[in-house]
Amino acid sequence: MSRQAFGDLIDALPFGLRDQLDGYVAAVESVADDIIREAGLDPSQAIRDQLVFAAGVRRLWAMVDGQWAVLDTSLRFLRENRVSRMRVGSAVYGSDSRDFVDVQRLRRQLSEELEQLELHDAVLVDDLSELARWVAARL
Amino acid sequence: MDVNLVRRRLRSFIRAHRTAFDHLALRRYQLLEVVGLALAVNHYSSKGYDVQPTALQSGAFRINTNSRGKPWNFSRWIVSRNGIEFEIYANLPVGGAYRSDGAVYVVDVAVVPTGFVPTVRPQTKWTHVDNRHLVTFAESKALVVYPMLIAQFIGICHELMPRHLGGVPRRRFIQGNHFKPALISLGYLHAVSLGIVAAFPGRQYTIGVVSNSDARLLGRKLLPGEPSAFD
Questions:
Q1: Which parts of chain A register pLDDT below 70?
Q2: Sign of the torsion formed by the C-alpha atoms of A13, A19, A22 and A24
Q3: Domain count, chain B
């Protein structure tokens, strides 16, 4: 059921992102019981549903945060060597370039939204077992 | 967690930021080589190497995103430790390990000792770096790591660095703390693939798979001694 709810959540995303996320939650769903047991919990439909949904939200955050991290890391290494810009194909990235500022803003706004939904801790867990414990504690 | 509330709020968020998500999706493919280079540079930094960009163009680091791009037209990273220096290239053509077949493979990220790739257009035609100079490499993909993707990568390793499949890596590879030839993917590791990757050490495969590669850079302080995504 929560996989359906997550599918509804992401239905306005571009196909490439939606497809990745949908495949990811399907994969999590297929091994959900193993993850829940690994977390030291007894599998139940409620934990399973919440875990699959929360895993999808965590992956959505990772897509946004990850792209920011890739750019930020690369630019930081370059900045340490007094280089401020990176050219990839026809695009130029710098800490004030439109692309970088756009992804930085999207990351900040999504972070704020997750904070308001009290999901910020959930998206920052190290692995899915920890996420299973997080959802179980809030059932 | 109130699933319905989260669904409604994040659905609205995505709709309100549709353009930003469209751009995010487009950039994912453009940044494939950038992810590979960033992870490689982070790896060497974490192993105590000095890292330095070179061959800048108009003050910018220009990344080769094209398999036909000539290395002297693009920037590269130089990493050095204890007087030993290597270069990290994006999209570098490398000769196959079985030289008699004349094969050349363009790898997404290649590490070679300094001095074996021309830095200016040569007088005579240059096509690739000799296989014996390839220290390690990485392939970047935006795909879910399904078993067939791993099989394809093992095939690439077989053609480029067969010693890493059941053999013993060169001593310089171990001494230099180089990263294992790696498949880097923005996608996740499919459940079926987990067992395949877990069995690598038992098969004496000195290769690696880095899934969710963009997220691997999260929270890293990128100082010497910080963990590498390849470890």
A1: 1
A2: negative
A3: 1
